[in-house]
Amino acid sequence: MGTSSTNDKISGAEIHFAPMQGFTDMAYYSAFSKHFAGVGYYYTPFFCVDDRLERTFFAGSDLVREKLVWQILPKDIDEMKVLTHFVLRQGGSMLNINLGCPYPMVTRRGRGAALISNPEMVVSMIDYIRNYTPLTVSIKTRLGLSRDDEVFPLLEALARKSCTQVIVHARTATQLYKGNVNTERFLECRLRFPEIDFVYNGDIVDTESFLNFTNLFQGQYKWMIGRGLLCDPFLADRITDNSDCLSELKRKDILQNFVFDLIEGIVSTSNDTGHALNRVKNQFIYLANAFPEPKRITRLVRRSKSTDELKTELWKKF
Ligand SMILES: Cc1cc2nc3c(=O)[nH]c(=O)nc-3n(C[C@H](O)[C@H](O)[C@H](O)COP(=O)(O)O)c2cc1C
User: Fold this and answer.
1) CB-CB contact of 281 with 54 (8 Å)
2) Mutation test of ligand 1: which of 182, 183, 209, 227 has the most ligand atoms closer than 8 Å to its C-beta?
3) Residue with CA closest to ligand 1 atom 2
4) What φ, ψ does residue 199 adopt, rounded to 5°?
5) Each residue of 124-159: pLDDT tens digit?
6) Which end of the chain is flanked by fewer CB atoms within 10 Å, N or C?
């Protein structure tokens, strides 16, 4: 890869769609996968033992199911077992453990980013999953709870486990989603633990920022993207194809079909019309940015009193 051009690096990229609670549900992924390419893996938002796990979750279309990674938020082995068996009951084959959730309500209970400082617990979870289930397992972590070097003892422990994939959101939990990502610390992670299969995550918002990260992290080809993809659903395709060859008309057409399929998917998986409208409105927090005039779309969505009214109004915008 040393002498390869930037274009080569782009076409080798493997894109993971980040778990985003309230956004990347199965209705979203089913509509997304029907209209957009470029994503290799879709992550569910986290499940924890407080959720209604007796329910069977709609596991999306076939396109999604084969690329679906189920994320769990356990605090200890007992919770991990409950959640692992839930994933198996749902027919999942890939599991991800959340070590990144930053909110005090979660971390105070020993979950999410609180587990970064408990490598033995994390290793025991991985051992259990590997020894007693057919699931593949990966970790999603931050650099630390409050310090950006807290992740190193965890990585040291994980490096001893072969083939562990670790997704690093290059911030501390106290940063939440603000401030700069710490690219130096991510580089240090890669340098110190070459045996770990790292996925970089944080602030890839367009092809330009993606190119900057590829230049900083030479040879890195696994990337996780959240908000960037929700704002621009074409982003993974632009990155992996390195092509902006679609005409504006074609782009509009694809976006329109996606939006209408998404609304249909949400309506058909909601409890009632109010619930559906709220879910659709929530999607537009990011999705509005995919339109030429995001503010107008946001206003229009906010004013809509039903999904039918919203569809009629949106129709006029395409
Ligand atoms: C609204 C919202 C919900 C999120 N939900 C989850 C989640 O369920 N599990 C998780 O591991 N990370 C979650 N994240 C973090 C993202 O997966 C991702 O790590 C973070 O947004 C940084 O990536 P980005 O800059 O590409 O968005 C969430 C982030 C946001 C903003």
Assistant:
1) no
2) 227
3) 20
4) -120, 125
5) 999 999 999 999 999 999 999 999 999 999 999 999
6) N
In this prediction, residue 144 carries a pLDDT of: 98
Q: Mutation test of ligand 1: which of 21, 105, 166, 176 has the most ligand atoms closer than 8 Å to its C-beta?
A: 21
pTM for the whole structure? 0.95
Nearest to 174 by CA among 277, 242, 102, 280: 102
Identify the residues whose C-beta falls under 6 Å from ligand 1: 18-22, 45-46, 71, 98, 100, 140, 169, 177, 201-204, 225-228
